[in-house]
Amino acid sequence: MKILVIRRDNIGDLVLTTPLFRALRQRFPEARIDAFVNSYNAPVLAGHPDVDQVHEYTKGKHRKGFSPGWLERLGQMWRLRKEHYDHVVIATPGVHPRQIRFARFLNPAHITAFVPPGWKMFGVDQPVEYLGKDRHHLLMTYRILLPFGIEGDPPAPRIAFTPPAHSPGEAPVIAIHVSARKPSSRWPEERYAELMRALHERHGARFRLFWAPGAENDARHPGDDGRAARILASAAGLPVEAVATNELEGLIAGIAACDAIVCSDGGAMHLAAAMGKPVVCFFGESEAHLWHPWDVPHRLLQPESHDVADVTVDEALAAFDALRQEANAA
């Protein structure tokens, strides 16, 4: 049996799809299980024990130079068609006619996809009713496996990584990720240095600083190079290592070397959770019931205003202290 799972969106979405690969492998241990993802999030599946091959494509906004992307894409589609997959699984929650058309072109024996309740969609012979945003995104995604007879509690998200090597009693290394796509989830930059100073005084903590790379005025790919530089300047005298991560592989390796993370809602949060790192996270105008860290100790800070500027340093410090006590008691 040959199965292709399609998941072409963001980092966190793909992390929360990894339980599908584990469940499929447990159900069909001899199957070939492949993934079709974009080049930006593909490193999430690097070395994944339940995925045989990762096929990736480059979105237009991530394409470099003047290469004819449509020609490359067409060639890739024909190569995938020649794989003669038995099953193509469109794992993205919601109704996605364009992805269904893509799956039909691949000409598999079966297509599994979400459809509106009561609907039939051409080519989808294994439909799963899309019930809306009624549960965590991981659980919404996991329902796509119902036609395979797979249900119940999902496995935890899983990515391949190398855990940190620490001596007993050594001070913790805390990842501090300071970027967020939504303005309401961007904690004021001056508070990061205050928090790090308090954590260092209280726990002897050391820090690794992460951010979205790029200039703040880059119209296509705005980053937080300036923000990170200002935070580093404010944290002078503290044991802070700046970790520039121009590729996702670097972010994964960088977080893997830490013991916990303080961050906003986003891909870095889900990566850390999939590695079992305790998480303190800031949520602004995000739906916490859909996107909270899954199956890992965490403290989620979301004020009534849904603007993380209203979260104080003392609240963040108290959240980390509570999380540390929980981890020590486990």
Amount of beta strand: 15-25%
Q: Can you list the strand order of the major beta sheet?
A: 3-2-1-4-5-6
The CATH homologous superfamily of the largest domain is called: Glycogen Phosphorylase B
What is the structural class? alpha/beta
Low-confidence stretches: none
Q: What's the end-to-end separation, in Å?
A: 41 Å
Number of domains: 2
The CATH architecture term of the largest domain is 3-Layer(aba) Sandwich
Q: What is the CATH third-level topology name of the largest domain?
A: Rossmann fold
CA-based gyration radius: 21 Å
Q: DSSP helix count?
A: 11
H-E order: EHHEEHEHEEHEHEHEHEHEHEH
The CATH top-level class label of the largest domain: Alpha Beta
The overall average pLDDT, rounded, is: 93
Shape: elongated
Number of strands: 12
Helix content estimate: 25-40%
Description:
By secondary structure, the protein is α/β, with parallel strands linked by helices. It is built from 11 helices and 12 strands. Strand 8, helix 7 (225-234) and strand 9 (240-242) form a beta-alpha-beta unit. Helix 6 (189-203) crosses helix 7 and helix 6 crosses helix 11. The chain is elongated. Keywords: Glycosyltransferase, Transferase. GO terms for molecular function: ADP-heptose-lipopolysaccharide heptosyltransferase activity. It comes from Usitatibacter rugosus.
What is the fold's blueprint, element by element?
Layout: E1 2-6, H1 11-15, H2 18-27, E2 32-38, E3 53-57, H3 69-81, E4 87-90, H4 97-106, E5 110-115, E6 126-129, H5 137-142, E7 173-177, H6 189-203, E8 206-210, H7 225-234, E9 240-242, H8 248-256, E10 260-264, H9 267-274, E11 279-282, H10 288-291, E12 298-301, H11 313-329
Parallel strand pairs: 1-2, 1-4, 2-3, 4-5, 5-6, 7-8, 7-10, 8-9, 10-11, 11-12
